[in-house]
Every structure is written in structure tokens, then in C-alpha cells.
Amino acid sequence: MARHSLEVTTMIELLAPALLAGLAVAVVAGPMGAFVVWRRMAFFGDTMANSALLGAALALALQVNLYLAVIAACLTVAVVLVGLQRQRQIADDTLLGIVAHITLALGVIALSLQDSVQVDLFAYLFGDLLAVGWSDVLALWTGATLILVLLIWQWRPLLSITVNEDLARVEGVAVTRTRLLLMLLLALLITGAIRTVGVLLITSLLVMPAAGARRLAHTPEQMALFASLIGLVSVTLGLALSWYGNTPVGPSIVVAAAVLFGLTLLRRPTS
Amino acid sequence: MTEALVTVDHAALTLGGQAVLEDVSLTLAPGRITTLIGPNGAGKSTLARLVLGLTRPDRGRVVRRPGLTLGYMPQHLRVDGSLPLTVDRFLWLAAPGRTGARRDALQRTGVAHLRRRAVRQLSGGEMQRVLLARALLRQPDLLVLDEPAQGVDVAGQDALYGLLGQVRDETGCGILLISHDLHLVMARTDEVVCLHHHVCCSGTPEAVSRDPAYQRLFGTHGMANLALYTHQHDHDHDISGDVHEGHDHGAAQPGGHHHD
Fold first, then answer.
1. Is B89 touching A (CB cutoff 8 A)?
2. Which residue of B has its CA nearest to A87?
3. Which domains, and CATH codes, for chain A?
4. Could you read off the pLDDT of B10-23 as tens digits, one per residue?
5. Whose CA is closest to A137, among A254, A242, A22, A238?
6. In a domain, B11, yes or no
7. Which residue in A20, B97, B122, B203 has its CB near the most CB atoms, within 10 A?
């Protein structure tokens, strides 16, 4: 009996920070994922996530704060991409494919040049949720709250530029500023998510809950909310799967999200 | 003379190496309906985008009256299938918090019944009316409509132009209309600007239709349409389609194409 309660205590001690950290990412990945799906930015998000790895490598090399370096790398790549998209020589998805893999390759090389980072690389690529501590949980929820507050505050302009940028501009929305805000929020989210699900899996946590929510929602707000809920359940189920099945956490969460998305396919799509 | 809403002053714009607009000047005044006509690719939409501030000219300038409220009805608007959006939410983007105003605007353009419909399920004509409702909702000083009659049947077009005249009379707003056929809008417009990268001619519809520059652009086909139109419309339609006998416009009867 005593042994059993000890086990439960250990489980809670190990899993509670992981669960809370994962939930912080999921709750924000819902609405952000909705925008990624609406604006067809999945590949863009992927590219930003890959540049996060480069940022992490630079942080290690230059001995600077990891999160600051990652967010700086994400934003730099985002701004460069937006600039490059203005030219019409290379198609957008080709451009993204090129930049995504350049940043990924450079990130892996930069990491490999440093001592004793073999374990770290895997953690950055696929996440290491079980390694997060209470300070991470606090940081993640602070970031999540910040993102949610900004999203709610700027919801209408964000939605307006998503529906039609010309109409938004004529109606007085600061289109460029709003688009930059969306990228900043995405960079913030990726920075938080790098420690939980890893750079290679963050796009799926953005896209799958939102795609699943689309089939249940009648309004943009419903879709964002349902995506958050699907994300929350995915994280919880993924952690449980990882705990009982001894599987890696990040991929387990993605598998859980995929199963939930599969379930939504059974339902007839809404208009 | 009231202050101009928007003045385009010797504007020129090159896009992708192609001179789309060359030395174009245009003044839009309150309470006037100006129609921009010209063949496809003549730069009509680009000029409208200059007026709206969506594009900047390479040379020349565009001056908007300070504090000007614009209403814009684009030629096309496609909402991505991944975005669930009802007509009411679509209008909310332009004017939040005023459910009654949104309902009134839809009523006005004759599509109140579509309020809860998904934007994606609308037909072309329905979408045009919803777009017009969104533009009107902002009570604009200047309404810019890019090919508003697209996807609308003839009776609908007549009602649409009637509605625009009504809006102008009630609110005193200026209207800039883009069309590729003059005969449709002739009776409802105060000024016609014929554009083919530069302003070929401008003035009253009658004057423009007699202008050699206009005749070169549109040929006798346009002339025939014009004659047919002036013949048909020596009366007025109201928005429900009733015909009222009216005075003869006494318009030009060019080229003997007037049908009796």
C-alpha cells in the first residue's frame, strides 16, 4: 500500500510539470493553429520551427539565453521570408522549402560542432517534456497568457486580414503591423514549444487540432476554441501513452492528436 | 465647389515592366457617381486601388480628404474553405457590435435572408450583394465598386444601380464605379471616364459616347448597345422592378442605331 502511494506521488511529481507545460503549449496552439490553417501557413510555421533549431544552436555556441536566441532566429527568418516573398521569381512554397532545409541543416551542423550535444539534438527535434521543471511551467504559462491576451485584443484585425487584406486595409486595419504581430506570436509559440514537442512536431500540433476543429465549428471563434480543447486532450492522452507505453512524449502527443483528428473525420463536415 | 474626396494628380504606375497607368488625373466629388470604363486590362482596377490607397503611384500623387471613410466592393472575394464564416460574422469584421446595423445593411441590398448562411455557400450574385452591404455598413464618404454587376442578372443589375443612386441621394457620398460596358450604367452616372492606360476622354455619358476616342475603343458594337439602352430606358425602374413612365432622355442617337 505504501509502495503504491509512493509510486503515485512519483508519477505526479514527474508528470505534473510535464502535463502543465504541455497544456500551456496546446491551449495557444489551438487559435494559432487556426490561423496557420486559414492562412495556409503550415509550411511557413515549419520553416520558422526549423530556424528555431538554428537559434538554439547559436545560443549554445554564444552562451546566450536560449529563448531569446530562438525567438530572435524565428523572427529574423520570418522577416527575411516576408521580404523574399515580395519577389516573384521563386514560388512561395519552393522558397519555404529552401529556407526550411537550409536553416535545419545549419542548425544541426552548428549543434554537432559543439561538445556533448548528442542528447540535446534529439530533445530539440522531438521535445523532452519530461525534463521540464517548474520554472519552465511558469515561463510557458506566462508566454501562453501573453499570446492569448494579444490574440483576443487583436482578434478582429487578425481575422480581417485573414479574410481579405484589401478590405481590411480599406477599413483602416494596419495590415502590415497585424501580419507582423501574427508572426511574432507564432515565433513566441514555437520558442515555447521547442522544449515540449520539439521543432519537427510543432507544426502537427498546430495543424491537426485546428483541422479537426474545422469539422465541428460554425464560427472562427468556435474553431479556435475546439482546436485548443483537442490540443489539451492530445497532450493529456499523449503523456498517458508515454507513461504507460514507455514511448517518447512528443511523438506520443502527435499520435494522440492524429487519432482525435481521425475521429473528427467520422463526423459530417459543417458548412 | 465642395472639397474633392479624392484627387488623383498625374499618376503613373508601372507593374512588372508594363505601364499600367500613364499620367492619369481624376477628381472624385461628394454626391457624384463617376463611372470608369475601358477594355479589359486598361488599368481600371489599378486606378481604383490607387484611389483606395491600396497601391501607390510611381509618379504623381493621390490626395485623399483627411478623415475620409472608404467603402470598397472588390471584384472577387474568396473565403478559404478552412475558415467557417457566416455572412453576419463577415459583416462584423467591418462594423463590430452593431447587430441591427448589419441586419439593416443586408436588408438594404436585399439579402437579409442570408444572414446566417456560410459565406462560402453564396452564389456570385449573393456574394456581390453581401460585399455591397459590408461597404455600405461603414457609411462611407466614397464608395468604390469594382464591376459590381458581375454575376448579377439584368433585373438585379437594374436594382443594384437604382440602389446606388438612392444611397448617393440619401447620404451624399461619392461613388466610383468600374464597368467595362457603358450602356449598363449610362442612366445612373454623372460622369464617365474612359480609360485605356491614360484617360482617353471624360465627361457626361452623352458627351463620352460621341467622343471619337470612345468610339475607337469600343467600336460600333458599343454604340449599338448604347443606342439600344437609351431607347429602352426612357422610363425608370424602381428597386422592385416596377416601370414608371418618364421623360425622354433626349440622348444622342449615334450612327442611326436608334431602334423604334
1. yes
2. B16
3. 2-265 (1.10.3470.10)
4. 999 998 888 899 99
5. A22
6. yes
7. B122
